[in-house]
Queue: 4 jobs
Job 1
Amino acid sequence: MKVTVVKNVLDANDRIAAENRELFDRHKIYVINLMSSPGAGKTSLVERTIVALRDNYRIAVIEGDIQDTYDADRIAKLDIPVVQINTGGGCHIDGNMIREALPAFDLSKIDFLIVENVGNLVCPAEFKIGENVKIMLLSTPEGADKPSKYPLMFQESSALLINKIDLMPYVDFDLEKAKRDSLALHKDLKIFEVSCKTAAGLDEWIAWLTRRIDAFKK
Ligand SMILES: Nc1nc2c(ncn2[C@@H]2O[C@H](COP(=O)(O)OP(=O)(O)O)[C@@H](O)[C@H]2O)c(=O)[nH]1
Ligand SMILES: [Mg+2]
Ligand SMILES: [Zn+2]
């Protein structure tokens, strides 16, 4: 008997992600898909990015978590439209979850949508959601071996923010190795060294992002 191999889970997701993308294009919404392990600083980066860009763009946020609304509550405090996706145990956000979340927004009033994915260095990188770019954080306490251990996320991301640079004196993080190994996986990866605590390095991130959003909106 011939064995039929079904690979349509990702195919179906790609289709839905493409439909999301068409919708975002129609409304000229630039979308970033923010990924990292739990605790690397995604929500802190979202907060910093909102404060830096809220005068220039109408921003909205989708927060993905297994349960609860801690992160969405943090964003709502900034008075930014936010939707929480609870995956109920699921370890990533997929295209369909984004599609289901979108009716909660007035898309005609958004320029820039930030999606904070579920904290996980593995499968979020496999699922398109209709984003313009995937962005990842790696924080210094996690160690410099992560590019070699979790290559896909580094390959799929357009930019890598190495966060918690302020902790460098206290952790054994080989910054040069982390950068070298990341670039070996993805030679065009844009790397920023930042601290969401002290704000060090964030100006460059904001400038890069602004260029991307403006180029898209033209
Ligand atoms: N020292 C230091 N702590 C940070 C930095 N960025 C975030 N944190 C802290 O790390 C913890 C996790 O941050 P959070 O933004 O919630 O990470 P998320 O789980 O990836 O969304 C919080 O206690 C933050 O205050 C940083 O650059 N330096
Ligand atoms: Mg978070
Ligand atoms: Zn997953």
Note: The helical segments are 8-26, 42-53, 70-76, 95-101, 146-149, 151-156, 175-185, 202-217.
Job 2
Amino acid sequence: MTPPVENPAAGPSIFSGATIRDAIRAAGDILQAANIETARLDARVLACRAFEKSLEELMLRSDNPADAAPLELLSQYCARRAGGEPVARVLGIKEFWSLEFELNDATLVPRPETELCIETGLELLRDSNCAAPHILDLGTGSGCILIALLSELPEAEGIGIDIADAAIDMARSNAAKLGVSDRGTFYRQSWNGDGMDFGSFDLIVANPPYIPARDIDGLAPEVRDFDPTLALSGGNDGLDAYREIAGVAPAWLSPGGFLVAEIGDGQATDVAGLFEAAGLSCAADRQRCDLAGKVRVVVAEKR
Ligand SMILES: C[S@@+](CC[C@H](N)C(=O)[O-])C[C@H]1O[C@@H](n2cnc3c(N)ncnc32)[C@H](O)[C@@H]1O
């Protein structure tokens, strides 16, 4: 029996008596009716969490009657997803660099393109034979960048700063859960440099807010309505954070150290210009592009 799906807000009864297969199908129908593009995929991801099983395990048990508690959870997840909330927000978790990060209202959902910062940072450290690097993550959010780097570099230590208290709480908790809290320390601190004296760093990474303020209203609702504005808005031209970072990063970099910054579409020339004007050196061949061929990462070196 496939349960009726017409009203996602109706609560757990829409799935009652369902097998696991029925429940997943009903969840997909609800999300499709709500015009969610990835309805079937999202239904499976939400079901895996609700039933606390991998997709393979769920499929093996698909003809079993589903228990009431996971059905109710799945129903709640579907109602939220049908209301436009991204899956990562509904579940409060996101995979990044094959690690699972918990999220709260103060943290951006980590984006796949930010993994380019990790790849770039790892390459630069490897090429400069830096065995035990000291790393600074500006605007750490969930801690995803610093924690991913520390997970790859057993000898590295790092500091993550963010202006949002709740983001720092989340980053600390993620670092503990992912086993790097002995090497990663997180502070509530602005990157404007006030009161900051943490020594010098071989690598500074930053994924700052870079959306021009006038573009925020036009963002996809899943971003605009659920990611924190503090993590998105880069001021009038989107470059405010880079100006502040350019003002402080040269003093925090060790000689030969690198600043790796994620940027928004079309910002490479301006951001590189800001870093060069601050005395850093930005080689064009060190920039990294995303799969669409757009420059997403600018690298600056302290010579
Ligand atoms: C685009 S998010 C990046 C979060 C995380 N690093 C990631 O890549 O998913 C930018 C982060 O910068 C933080 N932020 C905004 N203004 C800041 C400031 N003046 N000083 C420090 N952090 C700031 C925000 O709270 C947010 O967590």
Note: Residues 68-82 form the longest helix (15 residues).
Job 3
Amino acid sequence: MNKPDTLEQFRQQTTDWIAQHYPPQLRPTPGASGEDPRQLKIHEADWLALLAKQGYLAPSWPREYGGAGLSDEQVRVLNQALRKAQVRSPPISAGLSLLGPVLLEHGTPAQKAQHLPKIARNESFWCQGYSEPGAGSDLASLSTRAELEGDEFVVNGQKIWTSHADAADWMFCLVRTDREAPQHEGISFLLIDMSTPGISVAPIRLISGPSAFCQTFFDDVRVPKDNIMGQLGQGWTLAKQLLQHERQALGSIGRGDARRALTLPELAAQEIGINAAGQIADPVLRDQVAQCELDSLALRLTMSRSADEARAGQGSAHIASTLKLYGSELTNRRHELMISLRGADGIGWEGPGFTPAALRTTRQWLRAKGNSIEGGSNEIQRNVIAKRLLELPE
Ligand SMILES: Cc1cc2nc3c(=O)[nH]c(=O)nc-3n(C[C@H](O)[C@H](O)[C@H](O)COP(=O)(O)OP(=O)(O)OC[C@H]3O[C@@H](n4cnc5c(N)ncnc54)[C@H](O)[C@@H]3O)c2cc1C
């Protein structure tokens, strides 16, 4: 691509690039039922690789770290073009959406050079080692400990609910480095290579079958001292900052622009039919679909406004809690509605009687329930909003 002189030129170039490169097989077709999930995965991987090559997985990161070096305005135009073309958004990944922004700000030059380009090219896969059996909502009570011996930390303990730990190359991990210090001050932030001897991972089976969840055990795991991010004992500040990015990312799911299947209005038109005026035939469902679409639009605008405020150094970092709370509730409402629209087909779990698209709806509906827990439960977000944003008394 030639370097564009104006934002409008950039918009045109980006729009043309998407039109030229987006695999047509990924465009959902109303009425189609026989999509082959394996083929879709291949086309999805191709699309992801193209985005990565262009630096569009981390568009605002500097080029030296695998990003596209875009300005804030250009990132916004890129996102608008992707949304307008209704392409599939890349999945939220722990490396790109959570660790990357914090590493950019707090990583040492060596850490940034080692990790950021691989994250931006989707070549290294990260997991998040925060929760423990005795530390979830009350995360600061975590007890996995890391003791400094020469040039290495020796880590012992256990993490739980570590999504995709069994597939991850690296983990960003909260460890207790000082048991005498006040709770929040004895925590450090370590980057741990998952192939280090002493780490074992046990996938967790749920009532629904295999899941992404794992337990991760550390038994005398030796981690180079240089893998600490930030200062010793100051990991809590970084951990909280990362959680803001996680909450923002989780809230963004509620915008409903992750194009994986039919949009809500398309699904409604397919399942319910349209009347002579071109509207969804059932007036009650039409109203619910319209409300959901309007609320998604309002969330998108609010997210964009809060991003502007953040860039201008205004607003509160705790707005991420509001976005996460609202976005996850909206996602749940959207999936409830999709289940209603599919009628009896919406409650299938497996078997030949259901189309792959209908089965995906059921699974996505169940998965959406987790959005109200991960990244800090919605009760915790309400507490943060009450305390930090509304400044209500304890
Ligand atoms: C889909 C999914 C993916 C996840 N992935 C990861 C991951 O990759 N890495 C990781 O480290 N963790 C992960 N988690 C774990 C997640 O961060 C925790 O489940 C979450 O923080 C809640 O902790 P807990 O499960 O221990 O529940 P608890 O803290 O025991 O809470 C139980 C209930 O009590 C409520 N509660 C607790 N304290 C309060 C309070 N002060 N006020 C009001 N209500 C309260 C909670 O809202 C909840 O309803 C994931 C969770 C889910 C669902």
Note: The radius of gyration is 22 Å.
Job 4
Amino acid sequence: MDRVGVIGCGKMGFKHMDCFRRIPGVKVVGVFDTNTQKCNECGGVKHYDTVADLFKDCDIVDICTPTNTHKDYIMEGIKLKKAIFVEKPLCRTMEEANAILKEAKKKKAKIMVGHILRYFNQYANIKRLVDTKAAGKPCVVRISRVNGFRRGSNNWFSSLEKSGGVILDLMIHDIDFLMWCFGDVERVYAMNLMSKGVQNTDYALAVLRFKNGVIAHLEASWAHYSGFRTSVEMACDKGLISYDSRNPNTLAVEFAGGRNFKDSPVDENATLVELKDFINYTRSGKIPKLDIDDAYGCLEVSLAALESTKTGKVVTIKKANSKLKYK
Ligand SMILES: NC(=O)c1ccc[n+]([C@@H]2O[C@H](COP(=O)([O-])OP(=O)(O)OC[C@H]3O[C@@H](n4cnc5c(N)ncnc54)[C@H](O)[C@@H]3O)[C@@H](O)[C@H]2O)c1
């Protein structure tokens, strides 16, 4: 039996617990949260008074706490030889990411970061269309992810230092997805509200130039209170790939001359599929769809976008995103 300990019982911790319970051979042994009231809301699972006691009782630790707290729990997990699932982003700063990567490499730790788009059928299908050149060579991309602002526990999302704003919360998903499709990013230019001192909401636009020449325009918003939605438009030299979550079962490719390709991926619980991939990794060693280098590279580009919002300048990614290869 794989024994999982969940740290942080907010939105994601609760969701993960539900998913882990559905994976055969996995048991959620208990939870730890600095707000004991949150533990009480979990019901039917042991509450630990200290995280040290939770670590003693589990083989796998699942970190679902605010972003600025990830690093300390990851380092403790590596020290105690636990397999680690941590929600995205890997951590809040590159200094933290460098420390994690160094230690993880030394100890050959098994760590996976929750970049969940790779587990959504719609996005995985777009990636397949890119890989097979179904619509030809991708040139220009427009991608969007919008929602209303969420306070989270103690309004932590409103603190740029803790959350990184909408760029590290929402845009990072699309950055990971695009890097999965196209590889390393060369330059980034971005603008947002939070870096200008606007509070309790954020809205960001970024332009990424990939080493393969693709240009992508990314939109991420916490100012869309009408609800969560995402979309992708990928203009390729032989067709346009598009997806809009308002019509979740249709992924389309439009070709000149009116020939259309349509796909109807069955909706699955992407978090469950993601956590199954992680558990399989802990059991068999088979690298999941996403490794720690991917998460590191994605954080590097996301933080470069955040830097650009502060300086108003284009940021060139100096390190190749994949210099510190883990495998
Ligand atoms: N993959 C996704 O789609 C997705 C979606 C939302 C959030 N996230 C990520 O998940 C993580 C958690 O976000 P959330 O929305 O669940 O936040 P949340 O505010 O809903 O929950 C966080 C929980 O952590 C607890 N907590 C705070 N500091 C702690 C500490 N030091 N130690 C232990 N517990 C602590 C809080 O009391 C709260 O219960 C973040 O890193 C966020 O970026 C991922």
Note: The radius of gyration is 20 Å.
